[in-house]
Specification:
It comes from Brevundimonas bullata. By secondary structure, the chain is of the alpha+beta class. The protein contains four helices and six strands, in the order αββββαββαα.
Length: 113
């Protein structure tokens, strides 16, 4: 998968939007105003994971703690194509679901989620 592929997967999810809060070279995908995936300027991708997935992925070396976001259980892949497309798409969908689950009922209703 490449940067555009990540964008296609993210924007296909309900209520997902693209923002550039850190500059035009960083793509931040959000739902309800909260980020669930970010693609960096150098081609890496970071995304939200569950507590258990964070431990498994970082301890196995399959992903590394995301810079500045590790305390919130985000992982980073230095290159988007480090994983198979289907595996990355599954994690993107999970990241979206985790963030949707943290939204208020009102916010979810406004987004039709």
């Amino acid at each position: 998968m490449d940067r555009e592929g990540v964008g296609r997967v993210c924007l296909a999810l309900p209520g997902a939007t693209l923002d550039h809060p850190f500059g035009d070279d960083h793509d931040a995908y959000k739902v309800g105003g909260k980020m669930f995936v970010m693609v960096g300027a150098t081609g890496g991708v970071s995304f939200k994971v569950s507590d258990i997935a964070y431990e498994v992925l970082t301890e196995s070396g399959h992903a590394r703690p995301a810079p500045y976001m590790a305390r919130a259980k985000w992982v980073n892949l230095p290159q988007i194509d480090d994983w198979a497309d289907e595996e990355l798409a599954d994690h993107i969908q999970s990241a979206h679901a985790i963030i949707v689950g943290k939204l208020t009922k009102k916010a979810r209703a406004e987004l039709g989620l």
